[in-house]
Design goal:
The complex is a heterodimer of chains A (about 35) and B (about 350).
Chain A (H helix, E strand, L loop, with lengths): L1 H26 L9
Chain B lengths: L1 H8 L13 H20 L5 H15 L7 H4 L2 H12 L5 H32 L4 H25 L4 H29 L3 H11 L3 H11 L1 H16 L1 H14 L9 H8 L3 H13 L5 H25 L2 H4 L4 H26 L1
The chains are: A mainly alpha (about 35), B mainly alpha (about 350).
Chain lengths: ~35, ~350
């Protein structure tokens, strides 16, 4: 149960944090020159 | 701990390992995703999603993947959730609320049909009570995550969780390829197909992938509908946990609000926050375009990982009886939800 909780919390919040950082980098114009 | 073993025994997740050990596998996901993007450019009418999954499946089912890649491949769920959060910036809050409200109403019907059908079939086929419950949670709500959460809550055996997960994964793999074809044959609109895949496909990754294989708009509808389903996970699992505890077959749930919160998909909060930011104009047009590219890349990694995880040799671990219960339930749920979306949206 603890393992399951730890795993779930890790991936859920990590995803939010990674997406937040990426959005911030976009705001700062870091991705402006990437040829997608 | 036994649930972690059950999940790992089926070879779909490795919950241990240091961060640097994930790098080779992530690079492999990136390489397969990039290859899928290039191939998709040469094949008309085939979405990159399908090629990413297909390439991953082809590799993992033909050669033995070196162990060094496994921890990184297992990060696919992180990229899926990151992609979902980023996708929030592409959707205005009013659309999310509108689609989510309709989706939630349909989800209630879908969950009721799933629970009743699976429980009935499980009894007919003589499956254990807890395996029937895990299958009904898997079909009704959220595939693998719900089964893992449910197995812990009702004190299910390791073997029951393994069988339920294997059964759900078999149908998920088939649906990604089959349902978009059916949707085009029937002539469903993007909206109707998005709702259908969000309702009928069990696992979050496969439900979203199925939507995106049909079209980008269908993928967005599928994502919101599936998230509505996921949001109910805690409540449904709590219902079963309390029911089993009353019969003395599982531990009591002390704090019900905390139980629901622990099962709540937290990335949904990130998705809604992104949508709020987009709605208030926090992102400019060029930034929204960049966010779109980023979520597509996150999905490329995630769906390549879904392909790698779909190993048919591992799926043989499902028994014949759980397979037929799953097949019957998926057929009933798919037909009922298809009729619903056709009547409402066509």
């Amino acid at each position: 149960m603890e393992e399951e909780k730890k795993f779930k919390i890790n991936t859920d919040w990590r995803a939010v944090i990674i997406a937040g950082i990426l959005a911030l980098l976009i705001k700062l114009g870091v991705f402006s020159y990437i040829p997608w | 701990m036994q649930i972690v073993k059950a999940v790992e025994s089926i070879g779909i997740l490795s919950l241990r390992g240091k961060h640097w050990q994930k790098i080779p596998g992530i690079l492999l996901l990136f390489a397969v995703g990039y290859a899928a993007k290039i191939i998709a450019g040469y094949i008309p009418h085939i979405e990159f999603v399908l090629i990413a999954i297909g390439l991953g499946m082809l590799i993992s089912n033909t050669i033995s993947i070196p162990r060094v890649f496994i921890p990184g491949i297992d990060t696919y769920e992180l990229w899926l959730k990151t992609g979902i959060v980023l996708l929030g910036a592409r959707l205005m809050m009013q659309d999310v609320l509108q689609i989510g409200t309709v989706g939630l109403l349909l989800v209630f019907i879908e969950i009721a049909v799933s629970l009743i059908t699976v429980k009935f079939l499980a009894k007919k086929f003589g499956l254990s009570d807890k395996l029937g419950t895990l299958l009904s949670i898997g079909v009704g709500i959220c595939g693998v995550s719900a089964i893992i959460g449910g197995a812990g809550a009702i004190d299910a055996e390791e073997e029951e969780a393994t069988l339920a997960i294997a059964t759900i994964l078999i149908f998920g793999a088939v649906m990604v390829f089959l349902y978009p074809l059916l949707g085009h044959l029937i002539g469903l609109s993007d909206q109707a197909f998005g709702f259908w895949s969000g309702l009928a496909v069990d696992n979050t990754a496969e439900a979203i992938a199925t939507g995106f294989v049909f079209s980008e708009t269908a993928g967005q509808f599928a994502t919101i509908t599936k998230l509505s389903r996921n949001a109910l996970m805690g409540i449904i699992i709590l219902f079963f946990a309390v029911s089993y505890a009353r019969r003395g077959m599982a531990q009591n749930v002390e704090n019900k609000a905390l139980f629901i919160w622990n099962k709540f998909p937290k990335f949904l909060i990130g998705f809604l926050l992104m949508s709020v930011l987009a709605t208030v104009g926090f992102f400019g047009e060029a930034e929204i375009t960049n966010l779109k590219h980023l979520y597509k890349w996150a999905f490329l990694l995630a769906f390549a990982g879904v392909g790698f995880r779909t190993r048919f040799s591992e799926m043989k671990k499902t028994g014949l009886k759980p397979f037929f219960v799953g097949l019957g339930a998926e057929a009933v749920v798919s037909v009922v939800t298809l009729v619903l979306v056709t009547v409402i949206f066509m």
